[in-house]
């Protein structure tokens, strides 16, 4: 075989194998068999097997069909397209772009409306892009040496949670909360190499037991796990709701999440509402 043809052949196999690996990861994450996925997109199961092993190359239409069936996020759909040898379809933006003005207004309204309870705007790597007033106050109280004053100075929620000088020392149910959070991160980083690197960094910098960091594919926790906090002698409990943008057409619009904290019991609601608990740094 001529060298040029051989190089082209090897590049094609490499692309297909890369696509196949990513397809297999997403199919496994969605807990679908090859037959399940094949049935969803009306193709023979053998074709799914050939796509995953690299014996068949996907068309652009096939990439779109499997991505839709697996509910793959837009950023990762671009990655699947590139792995299959096609150009990106979904545009990426910065939050400061003119096109993102409506998105900025929407998330600003959401976090302001959530006062007096803390609310944060985060990206897919858990960088805090913005927060409402009590969100900023809460970060200032419990984040220790982690600087935070968005939009000019941001912090990373993962660093704030797992750092010994951050939320960790204030969380009463730390072991259960941390294990639950780590399992969530494993699943989010399954197809996101940059987030996987963040998870690896946290593992290397943390003094948490190694067995805490094992990915448990069967991990199931309570449908709602409140974080129990003890600040300045007061005990509070919050549960969080994460909201996204409906029908996003931009990578950034899908990446942005608004994480809002709600009181999990009447005592927490009273503390936050009646005493402006986060307005001053507690002692003790």
Detailed description of the structure:
This protein has helices at residues 3-29, 34-41, 45-53, 60-69, 74-83, 101-113, 133-142, 157-162, 174-188, 193-205, 251-255, 266-275; strands spanning 119-122, 128-131, 227-231, 234-243, 257-263. It is of the alpha+beta class and 284 residues long. A five-stranded antiparallel β-sheet has the order 2-1-5-4-3, sandwiched between helices. α1 crosses α3 (45-53), α1 (3-29) packs antiparallel against α5 (74-83) and α2 (34-41) crosses α3. The model is unreliable at 1-17 (pLDDT under 50). One of its GO terms (molecular function) is DNA binding. Residues 23-77 form the HTH cro/C1-type domain.
**Helix count from the secondary structure assignment:** 12
**Helical percent range?**
40-55%
Query: Structural class given helices, strands, pairing?
Result: alpha+beta
Q: In terms of per-residue confidence, which ranges show pLDDT below 50 for 5 or more consecutive residues? A: 1-17
Total beta-strand segments = 5
Strand content: 5-15%
The largest sheet, given as strand count, sense and whether it forms a barrel, is: 5 strands, antiparallel
How would the global form be characterised?
A: globular
Strand line-up in the sheet with most strands:
2-1-5-4-3
The overall number of domains is 2
- The average pLDDT is 80
Distance N to C terminus = 75 Å
Order of helices and strands: HHHHHHEEHHHHEEHEH
The radius of gyration over CA amounts to 22 Å
InterPro entries: Cro/C1-type_HTH, Lambda_DNA-bd_dom_sf, MLTR_LBD
Organism: Litoreibacter roseus
GO molecular function: DNA binding
Domain HTH cro/C1-type: 23-77
């Amino acid at each position: 075989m001529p060298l040029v043809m051989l190089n082209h052949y090897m590049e094609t196999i490499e692309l297909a194998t890369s696509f196949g690996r990513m397809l297999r990861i997403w199919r496994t994450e969605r807990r679908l068999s090859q037959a399940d996925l094949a049935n969803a997109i009306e193709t023979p199961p053998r074709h799914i097997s050939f796509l995953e092993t690299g014996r068949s190359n996907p068309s652009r239409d096939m990439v779109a069909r499997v991505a839709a069936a697996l509910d793959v996020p837009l950023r990762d759909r671009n990655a699947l397209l590139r792995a299959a040898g096609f150009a990106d379809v979904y545009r990426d933006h910065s939050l400061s772009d003119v096109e993102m003005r409506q998105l900025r207004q929407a998330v600003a309204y959401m976090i302001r409306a959530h006062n007096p309870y803390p609310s944060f705007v985060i990206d897919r790597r858990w960088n805090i892009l913005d927060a409402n007033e009590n969100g900023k106050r809460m970060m200032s109280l419990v984040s220790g040496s982690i600087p935070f004053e968005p939009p000019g100075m941001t912090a990373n929620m993962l660093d704030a949670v797992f750092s010994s000088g951050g939320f960790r020392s204030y969380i009463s149910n730390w072991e259960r909360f941390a294990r639950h959070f780590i399992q969530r991160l494993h699943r989010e980083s399954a197809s996101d190499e940059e987030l996987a690197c963040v998870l690896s960094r946290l593992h290397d910098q943390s003094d948490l037991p190694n067995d805490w960091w094992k990915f448990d594919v069967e991990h199931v926790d309570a449908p709602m796990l409140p974080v129990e906090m003890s600040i300045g002698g007061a005990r509070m409990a919050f549960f969080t709701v994460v909201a996204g943008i409906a029908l996003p057409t931009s990578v950034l619009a899908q990446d942005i999440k608004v994480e809002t904290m709600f009181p999990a019991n009447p005592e927490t609601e009273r503390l936050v509402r009646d005493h402006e608990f986060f307005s001053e740094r507690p002692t003790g």
